[in-house]
Amino acid sequence: MAALATLHCLTGCAIGEVLGMVVGTAFGWGNLPTTILAIVLAFLFGYSLTLRGVLKAGVDFRTAFRVALAADTLSIAVMELIDNGVITLWPAAMDAELADAVFWFSLAVSLVIAFAVTTPVNKWLIGRGKGHAVVHEYHH
Question: Whole-angstrom Cα distance, residue 10 to residue 28?
Fold first, then answer.
């Protein structure tokens, strides 16, 4: 269950992270605004995926939003910390352009490492009835 919860989180984070990095890099933004955009979009897409599923269960928006926050905040935060930390430490990754292999390779590797680190976090949350354990009561 923890791996599936992390994969769900990774999907939203990856969409936001890749989109933010692509947009910031394409517009020639510096590293800080590009990273901030990527993090904001990762949270937005991560929450949106959970929100969509909970709303499908017929829950009102306010409750669904609270469930998404409770389910995903720590998971997304850890994933983003690890993902962006790896990219920051990766030689030449922060200066890579969209056409550079290091841009895509470092991003892919950072997401894999983030998945590996975040899975135990989600296992811990689920074991305490928190995180994605909260979402499962709304799935049919």
Answer: 26
